[in-house]
From TrEMBL, chain B:
Name the record gives this protein: Carbon starvation protein A
Family the UniProt entry places it in: Belongs to the peptide transporter carbon starvation (CstA) (TC 2.A.114) family.
Assigned keywords, A-Z: Cell membrane, Membrane, Transmembrane, Transmembrane helix
Membrane spanning residue stretches: 6-21, 62-80, 86-109, 130-152, 158-179, 191-212, 224-249, 270-288, 300-318, 339-363, 404-422, 443-464, 476-501, 508-531, 543-567
Topology of the protein relative to the lipid bilayer: Multi-pass membrane protein
GO cellular component terms, semicolon-separated: plasma membrane
PANTHER family cross-referenced by the UniProt entry: INNER MEMBRANE PEPTIDE TRANSPORTER, PEPTIDE TRANSPORTER CSTA
Location of the CstA N-terminal domain: 4-364, 378-525
Domain of life: Bacteria
Upper lineage: Bacteria, Bacillati, Bacillota, Bacilli, Bacillales
Amino acid sequence: MMLDKLKTLIEYYEEVLSMPHRQEIARELRNEDDLFLLLLYSEMIGIPNPVYYFTLELYPYMIENFHDWHLRMGMEKSPLSGIRCC
Amino acid sequence: MPSILVAIIGMIVFALGYRYYSKFVAEKIFRLDPSYVTPAHKYKDGVDFVPTNRFVLWGHHFTSVAGAAPIVGPAIAVYWGWLPAFLWVILGTVFAAGVHDFGTLVLSVRNKGQSVGTLAHRLIGQRAKILFLFIILILVLMVNAVFAWVIANLFISYPASVLPVFIQIPLAIWIGYAVYKKNKKMLVPSLIALAVMYLTAVVASKVGFLQIDLVQYMGGEDGAGLFGLGSVSTAFFIWIIILMIYVYIASTLPVWKLLQPRDFINSHQLIVGLLILYLGLLFVNPEITAPITNPAANDVSWFPLLFITIACGAISGFHGLVSSGTSSKQLNKETDARFVGYLGAVGEGILALVAIIAVITFFPSKDEFLATYSSFTASNGAGLGVFVEGASKLASGLMIPTDVASTIVSIIVVSFAATTLDTSVRLMRYIIAELGMEYKVPALSKTHVATSIAVVSSAALVLLPEGPKGFGSGGYLLWPLFGTANQLLAGISLLLVSIWLKRLGRNYAITLIPMIFVLFMTLIAMFQQVIFEWSWFGSESNMLLFVLGAITFVFAVWIILTAFGALTKNFDGPIKEDE
């Protein structure tokens, strides 16, 4: 009983400690994802993308992420007519 | 009088404040709504906006706001006797700091998690935002100077603390590497780091040659230093230069390399410090030897200087930056704001309370207290040292030898001060960059340009005031100015909450009264200091302090005028809750 309480306390403390750490990791990941997304749409800014055709296959996987991305970039609605997330 | 009684009375008042006053504020004034969709849910992105358990969020909030300031302020302010300091800490926490931290959190939650700076722009206007940036600039400049002085002073007084503090740097880098690159859990590495530091502290306290004592190297206090300066002056100078080089490097590194891992260790240190002090208090229960009030303290009146000498621990504008900057984006339910914001302030009040107790129980008799706290200037210089000694006396109740305890306590204070220094130099860089954008000087937004300006101006500020020990030892003269800048910031934040409440058609007296109190005290205190002490015809004429004080004074007047304008302005009907 006492041991369980101690364990909960340690878990709680570890969670408090790891808050900024988790945030920093998530931020790095998001930055990488944003860069990846930019690469996928590189044709739109004039950089030729040899695998452009195949990126279409990613469409169902990325539509949700795409929606979050354009909101984060300050666009209320989807900027691309091809992707109809909202 | 037994000191434990003072601690118990303080705790009871804090508990009543939380139980009744914060409940009243939450239900009747802020009207918190458990079903309100907080920014953490609305803009959930897994990075900044993350719904977080309220206990975890409180822990994070508290460790972010607690530092060295609630220790230094009370240690100086007991000069006027312990009762005024005690009353200001407990009443300030309950009626001012609690409402301030809680209010800024709620205001930010109701406004998309925006920070107080952005809200100043929205609620008052563009000028308020610039004003706000300048006030924060003054605040962080003071923080840099004052905390650099705190660290240099402790390094000179407690040379055994130097080695453990410097060992913390490679340990923190190792933790950063283990946690971020190797994906290890952080609890065990950071506990190992803490153990290594304290072990070094124990060894360094006992072994003379491990104590880096610059003054001794130059032949003791009367020895000759460099450039024709005395040994103490030279030691101050060298420590300040080393600190500034350290902070330049530390503040330009990514946060995960040094700043965050240091914070993991410091969280342990905060808990260790509070435990040692309160458990020690429980076992030793020393008698209070300091006078209740000090009638001999007539060189500087407690009114209004007490209220700016103790800033953190009674009310601190810096908390508003944390409340609205990070905590508001992670609040799970709006009703949690009371727990996180109000109890965060109470946590800091508890730290300030034990700092007061450590100082007022240290001296064997009242006469010795009065001899050390002989004048306000003497108290400013001696306060910190007395706290370290008093805290070690409390720690002796836990069978910790006094020399080891004083080393560990000074390490704790230095660690807090060093991370605050790192954060505030970073903050200063951002503000300089933002002002550079505002006034179209793009060079200022370059990292190394902005950091150089921040570091050089801070070093100049801490080195210039002359203290009794010569060059560089007068950093504590800046303490009242630090308090002023902090209180001004708190005043603006309370003003923002008041304007918001007024526009909602609610009773805004609960934030307006502390706001008027804080701004009034700051204004009177600054006026007295600037005109009667620091000006060319004042008692302690000092051009540097005069100019800085005068700038702060002008800002204070400016804010009050802006406040009056914003509060009396007629808006077109009440705003919506989350407009």
